[in-house]
Design brief:
The protein contains 8 helices and 19 strands. The protein has helices at residues 2-5, 9-24, 26-38, 41-52, 87-91, 248-251, 265-273, 301-312; strands spanning 99-104, 117-120, 127-130, 136-139, 144-149, 154-167, 175-179, 182-186, 189-195, 199-205, 207-210, 223-226, 229-233, 243-245, 257-264, 279-282, 291-297, 315-317, 323-327. This is FecR protein domain-containing protein.
Length: 328
């Protein structure tokens, strides 16, 4: 059991990434995973425990006993429901069956048979809303969205902010999420849409197709966004958006504690300041380029400032009650 006691928080964050990679492209990552597991004995047990708990992961495969010289083949096994905290992110990456298409919103507003529902949050507020059809929306701080539930359509107009959509699948009432001049359509799924000067989408369950339009230059083959991937682009940008792998941090914004892995300190401060009236700043702005990792209580300005100060070997100036100035 000593091997598991040697496991660090960084190992636990990395094992989630390895499971996600194996869900996506097992052949590509098999050898690298074998090397990572062999580097520390406890990692093998950690990976097996997390992977064995994943339910209905059709592409991920567990690692068998590993030969030091050559990784053994990978076999499929049955999965059990996951109850660990890290599993919430992984479960929502699985069971891909939803098809979403992103396209420019050229059509006019639909005629709804019900009154629209306007939902909004204050800066720093995160709120869960349950809809009449059993779907859930989680609104990030300073978000405004209008919900139209009709007999033949579910439409969501995101004016600003970020929303986590957990939408019941209903082919008879397809969904349409509009943000600026872009839209996401489908029948259901689990995904984030953010409209903060640019459109950002993170797909947790299902797959998504982005059809290039004039905003991205000449039309080309559709761009697929699968479970565990994300993209972001600004309206009218000349180039195609880049698809990137999602990370556990993309899921964790609905929680108080969030994992940061090799993130610029300036980005961490910007996110924390969005949740608190007490603002964090750096006396030396160049320190914002330093990169930090750790599990941080993102909605507690004091916790964030203390984590940054400890990382930098700095002090916190609390002379102004509305500011936490980090000085080194």
């Amino acid at each position: 059991m000593r091997a598991m006691t040697d496991i660090t928080p960084r190992d636990r964050r990395e094992v989630e990434k390895w499971v996600v990679r194996m869900l996506d492209e097992p052949e590509r990552h098999r050898a690298a995973l074998a090397r990572w597991l062999l580097a520390k004995p406890g990692r093998r047990e950690l990976y097996d425990q997390l992977f064995a708990s994943v339910e209905d992961a059709s592409q991920a495969m567990p690692m068998p006993a590993l030969d030091q010289a050559k990784p053994a083949p990978i076999d499929r096994v049955s999965r059990r429901p996951l109850v660990a905290a890290a599993a919430a992110f992984l479960l929502l990456l699985l069971g891909a069956s939803t098809y979403l298409a992103v396209s420019r919103s050229d059509a006019g507003p639909a005629q709804d048979s019900t009154q629209p529902l306007v939902l909004s949050t204050r800066p720093g507020e995160v709120r869960l809303e349950r809809l009449d059809d059993g779907s859930h929306l989680t609104l990030d701080g300073d978000t405004r969205i209008t919900v139209h539930l009709a007999s033949g359509e579910r439409r969501f107009d995101l004016a600003r902010g970020r929303v986590r959509f957990v939408l019941a699948s209903d082919p008879r009432r397809p969904l349409l999420v509009r943000a600026g001049d872009q839209s996401v359509s489908g029948t259901g799924g689990v995904f984030d849409v953010a409209n903060n000067g640019r459109l950002a989408i993170v797909m947790f369950k299902g797959r998504l197709e982005l059809t290039p339009h004039s905003a991205f230059g000449r039309s080309s083959q559709p761009l697929w966004l699968r479970s565990g991937q994300k993209l972001a682009f600004a309206s009218g940008q000349p180039s195609h958006p880049s698809v990137m792998p999602a990370s556990p941090a993309d899921w964790q914004w609905t929680n108080d504690v969030k994992s940061f892995d090799d993130v610029p300190i300036s980005d961490l401060i910007a996110e924390a300041n969005g949740y608190s009236p007490v603002k964090i700043s750096l006396a030396d702005p160049t320190l914002g380029q330093r990169r930090i990792f750790g599990d941080i209580h993102i909605r507690d300005a004091n916790s964030v400032a203390q984590a940054i100060a400890t990382f930098l070997g700095a002090t916190i100036d609390r002379s102004n009650p509305d500011q936490l100035v980090i000085r080194k």
